[in-house]
Amino acid sequence: MRREFQTFRTLPVSGAVVMSTRTELTRLTDVVDLKGKRELLGEIEGWGESEGEFKGRDLVVLGVRAHFVGDGAFRDDRSVVGE
To answer: What pLDDT band is residue 3 in, cutting at 50, 70 and 90?
Structure first.
């Protein structure tokens, strides 16, 4: 899982704008508590329509939920390729 946080700040003297990016990588297997699982699913389900389509939200949610309940891996080529 990759989360990216962006911050913009204006420098007081020059007025220049500085952008910083912080990236966190977390293994899905490291999300073990119920609160963390709910937060992750909520974040994924909260993606906007175009972002969800771009990132493949439907397939991601299926895989994350399956992992959280202990189901094995799955394969669903129709979700990726379409018909």
So the answer is: confident
Q: Which domain holds residue 18?
A: 2-81
Each as own residue / partner, the long-range contacts of residues 65-71 (CB below 8 Å, 24 or more positions apart, any chain) are 65/41, 67/28, 67/29, 68/31, 68/37, 68/41
- What DSSP designation does 72 have? -
Q: Under a CB-based contact definition with an 8 Å cutoff, are residues 41 and 65 in contact?
A: yes
Count how many domains the chain has: 1
Q: How far apart are CA 68 and CA 39, in angstroms?
A: 13
Whole-angstrom distance, CA of residue 75 vs CA of residue 73: 7
Are residues 74 and 66 in contact, defined by beta-carbon separation less than 8 angstroms? yes
